[in-house]
Design brief:
Chain lengths: 165, 165
DNA sequence: CGCGCTTGCTTGGGAGCCAAAGCAATGGTT
DNA sequence: AACCATTGCTTTGGCTCCCAAGCAAGCGCG
């Protein structure tokens, strides 16, 4: 047994209140919950996707490409859509390229830009890993459907108020 | 202006539905929201805490220590409470130690164990950074109080069903 | 007693993210 | 046409997290 039975977030919140920090205690608890939940969920995703030789970050890139008309996108667009730093995109594409799931091709009009294009093998891997995610973590995130929907709304509200869209 | 006005999560969900993946689309959207929200929130926290020479990870360690009776804890306990890998704790304590916010002292009974003890300076930094967080991100996470509370509950439920406690 | 499993920490390596700097190509301005 | 700010990508370096391996100390069992 390694289960302390205690909710660490509730524990932290009690500390906050005990120190007289009532008010911020709610936000603190929400923040800590968020971090922890993300950690758990991401762990699951990585697990599911690993057998396909992917990390979740690279899975996102691959899937994004598979959704585009021509299967290609400038790296900058990838960064925009996925909300990650250009350097991260470079790294992900490097790895995907050396795995043969993507190739870099020059942009036909803008010689500064580079397109990442998904390969046939890349498409196969994208399909398979998506299927695995759809059957696993995406099918059940540990909440009832209406709860998941409500969570989604609250997170959207949080993101909205942070200017995410 | 660089605001596309579009919610990228809603966009992804549309793609899912368009591909006939209805059902998992909800979980997918919830997961992606969660990741994005965490990214946003963590970014805020790092920002607030940086002026004190801390990262959020190290802030957590420091605060945890400040809450204990004697201001010290074996590294293993820190890992348990914060739910992070032992190697991460070693790294965080290394850094805190070289910043003079913490010292390593031998465990009086178990010679394998090492205690991290917060220093006076560490306490000051912990206080100040906590105050900053309490006035900033913790006071307002971008949701009304009842919404934040509801979010907290949903995340707790998610964590619970993942066996987090 | 002593062998062996467990526990506690550290080290080394991989991967991700970000910030800042460098370089090339663009494109608007004068 | 010449200039210079902007854009697109890469590189380097810092930080976090994890895994796996290594080593020391504790503990339990025959």
């Amino acid at each position: 047994m390694k289960e302390p039975g205690l909710d660490l977030v509730a524990e932290a919140r009690r500390q906050w209140v005990a120190h007289g920090w009532t008010g911020p205690d709610r936000g603190m608890a929400a923040v800590v919950s968020l971090m922890r939940a993300q950690q758990i969920v991401l762990g699951r995703l990585e697990e599911v996707v690993r057998p396909y030789g992917l990390s979740y970050a690279r899975y996102e890139v691959l899937t994004l490409l598979s959704f585009t008309r021509r299967g290609e996108l400038p790296l900058s667009k990838i960064g925009d859509r996925l909300q990650v730093h250009p350097a991260s995109v470079t790294g992900a594409v490097d790895k995907l390229e050396q795995q043969g799931l993507v190739v870099r091709v020059p942009h036909p009009e803008d010689r500064r830009a580079v397109l990442a294009r998904i390969t046939d093998q890349g498409r196969r891997v994208a399909e398979q890993s998506t299927a695995a995610l759809n059957e696993g973590p995406f099918a059940d995130i540990g909440l009832a459907a209406d709860q998941a929907e409500r969570l989604l709304e609250l997170l959207a509200e949080l993101r909205r108020s942070a200017g995410d869209f």
